[in-house]
Amino acid sequence: MKxxxxxxxSRGDVQPFVAIAKELIRRGIPAVILAxxxxxxxxxxEGIQFVDLPGHLTKDMSESLVAQALTTGNMKLLLNDxxxxxxxxxxVHQVLTYLKNDKDVTLVVCGPAVTFLAPMMxxxxxxxxxxxxxxxxxxxxxxxxxxxxxxxxxxGLSIRLCNLLLHSVVHxxxxxxxxxxxxxxxxxxxxxxxVLPPQRILPHYFACSHNIMPRPSDWPAxxxxxxxxxxxxxxxxxxxxxxxxxxxxxxxxxxxxxxxxMAADLCTDFFAFINEVVEHSAQAxxxxxxxxxxx
Length: 295
Known about the structure:
By secondary structure, this protein is α/β, with parallel strands linked by helices. The protein contains eleven helices and nine strands.
């Protein structure tokens, strides 16, 4: 038995799967994480086997789109760049190549960003796949889905409905592109004509545990990615609020803004969380913190 984790995203998306993989290894179950090379030193220092996936998170995103998303707080603008079909096609190929070469893998666990590709990868590889969605108190933990689908519903319904919305806008074009790629080295199936199993039959697990949620102390200093900006007027025009402008104009110190896909706004003790962030950060860094549904 060996468990493979396929994870895309920032450090807040990767960290929970590092925690899960470490626990599996502690219990004697081998685990491997497939992620972008940026995270390789960190993952390997934790004693976990690492396999490189295409892309570099901090370079993949268009700078102009990132700037627009940051000034408006509209994370939807980043979806098309995040779900770049050429890069995801290469990602599928890399996952299949690894599974072809490592016959010990008995289960592949997909993070939320790539779960929609799992039925296709299962169809081509024959290896069982499942999806894990990280939730805290039954709230979606990823900032992007929260912005796409801001309503909080119980039992993981927010994530399920978000995925339905994403399918037609984001997932469908990616799937169409990937279907037309050459996978003849893995299977003789004609993917263009193949009828893939519906995503709903894929096992989905909702992990609700404070023990695997991202904490500031979980990351080494060399993992400098992640974070979104969500200004007070994020649903309005492109102008910053006067308070935000004054804050940014006050000195030259680096500013860490928001918490990206971390569950900072979902913590039971939000202020203790912020104190921990500050404690593990350089003294020169200032913070803008957005907490959803908080005064």
